[in-house]
Amino acid sequence: MRDITLCHPRLQQLAARWIQACAAQGIIVGIAETLRTVEEQEALYAQGRTKPGQIVTNARGTSYRSQHQWGIAFDFFLMMDVDGDGKTSDDSYNDNTGLFERAAAVAKSLGLAWGGDWSSLVDKPHLYLPDWGSTPTQLIQTYGSPEAFMRTWAPAVGWVRTGIGYWYRRTDGSYPANQWCVINHHWYLFNPDGYMCTGWHRWDGRVCDPADGAGDWYFLDNTLNGPLEGACWHTRDNGAQEIWEVDLADQI
């Protein structure tokens, strides 16, 4: 399947940002494989084993061992005339000029992980959400089946915790990124990948050392799993410090 809307909502959003970011660097990409059924994965597994062709995967469909079955990965291809022959159709997977590495670097800067970094069956066209590791083992142990996992994708509003950190799901399923927001009367800062920041930061989001003496700095509560982790602190008139509570409606 090539429909990215069948994949995890967060992967959909990152894929859209990735395509735009690649285009800004002159790399034109398209999405190939997205979600796979058990039958589709089994057919790929048979290739090079019981069917003609080269082995392209070690993941059995019946054991849910492919990230594609869980909707957390997609494969991409190039939509460019790499070899200069006036055609793009013969260059979909032409990596002679290192375009896959460049596209992967863009993806990793957005928080995705790359199959080209794998040591076994290197998969350069493969990008995935790293929240559950490089294999579906954690997903299998937690949910048992892709269907059970997908039922958790309902766009409920609020904080979502992954293996990387917290992000905030809006009512439309999107999330704030690279901005400050007021949530439940507290200020929070989100990095460019959409994850909540903690520790010392400047107003523009750069991590800073308050001892450097340059410009304003803000401390975001770093109490791991605390009730107000990520909330901004401030200093009262008497010099005492506390988590900042503001009389403002949510600005997300």
Automatic annotation (TrEMBL):
CDD domains named in the record: L-Ala-D-Glu_peptidase_like
One Pfam family linked to the record: Peptidase_M15_4
Protein name: M15 family peptidase
Positions of the Peptidase M15C domain: 61-127
TM segment ranges: none
InterPro entries in UniProt: Peptidase_M15C (IPR039561), Zn_M74/Hedgehog-like (IPR009045)
Organism: Enterocloster asparagiformis
GO molecular-function terms, A-Z: peptidase activity
